[in-house]
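Support request, please re-run this one:
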Amino acid sequence: MSEKALEINCEIPEKLSFLFEPHRYKVAYGGRGSGKSWSVARVLIVMALSKKLRILCAREIQKSLKDSVHRLINDQIQKLGLGKYFEVTEREIRCPSTGSTFLFSGLASNTVESIKSFEAIDICWCEEAQVISEKSWQILIPTIRQEGSEIWLTLNPELASDPTYVRFVKNASQLPDCVAKLVNYLDNPYFPSVLQTEMETMKRNDPDAYNHVWLGQCKSHGDAVVFKGKYVTYEFEPDEEFWSPFYGADFGFANDPTTFIKSWVYERTLYVEHEMFAHQLEIDMTTALFDTVPGGRSHISRADCSRPETISYLKRDGYRRMISCKKWPGSVEDGVDYIRSFDQIVIHPRCTNILNEFKLYSYKIDKLSGDTLPEIQDKYNHGIDAIRYSLEPLILGYKRRIEPRSDPVQFDSLGRPISSRNDAPISRILNPDMWIS
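Re-run finished. Output below.
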């Protein structure tokens, strides 16, 4: 570590000391609690104090500075006691004594021409780099071409097939002067005690999730991923005149989250716009969190029929149009088939939990043969279940069209058969606000 860093007591995990070394690509990847992001922020602050640098802090999606590392860098400046050396504005962070500047930008919203304005960058830090697209890399990398310029990445890996992971971790040895280090909470002597209980609980209850979230292992299921190739993520604005809104809720048990999802259907595309995920949610707090999803009170919402007492409470507490979903043998598979029948599923970038579920929702794998089985794993599905409940009228209409003689037997929350609705016209079934029990 440099003498300058020692003078200002810039403490970071030892495994990240390579950040002070000159390399074209510096990649810190791993699980939660490793200290990657705040360590990078500290090192960049120290470097900005030592000489004039133009530093670009980039991420794939940045609608405002709230989505950037602006706050993180400012917080670390204060923690290091260096506030008097920096000027923090709404758009930039500057060091007047050296002339260094921190800039902040999203990549996906920029054109080739606008990204060219970053040509004079000395260091580009890409935070949450696991979601950066191949298209963004193809534009950004040749743009950061200042003599001695560097590209830094911090990421928590998702899938082994993600463009960033393939380029900078799997194929790191093929890049010129690339150092990629796996860094986890075990390497962080400053691991906060507040995260200790959360980590130990996940390690005990869900070892697979622990390996992914805390140890930075990829979730790579190959062809077993149910929605592989069906979904994309980008920002969109619904056209309320022509699009149809759908609301669905799934209620948590023990360590499972309660979810409330708003999506839209237009022609052959499903758009997922808003999500609410909450663990260990008390029933009297449910309404307040459901209200974070716009429009839920005024529209019909369909919820898991296994919790009639929760549905009854929510109806009394403002969600008067909430109704129980209907379940029948094979309803999960029918719902998944219908969702897969869309030409495309578009997930808004703010719906990070739903996006993660679509990446991980998988069929079971035979332990001996490695073959993909027809059964779906009962995990990574709480938001997807909420979407499935919300689309129930469409799912049944779809099933009647492809299997007109096999109308499924439906059951209420007490397991009693519900009379057939074969006589209902499909146009009525396809209108989510007309079929109410």
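Residues 231-429 form a domain with the Nucleotidyltransferase; domain 5 fold (CATH 3.30.420.280). The CA atoms of residues 268 and 341 lie 8 Å apart.
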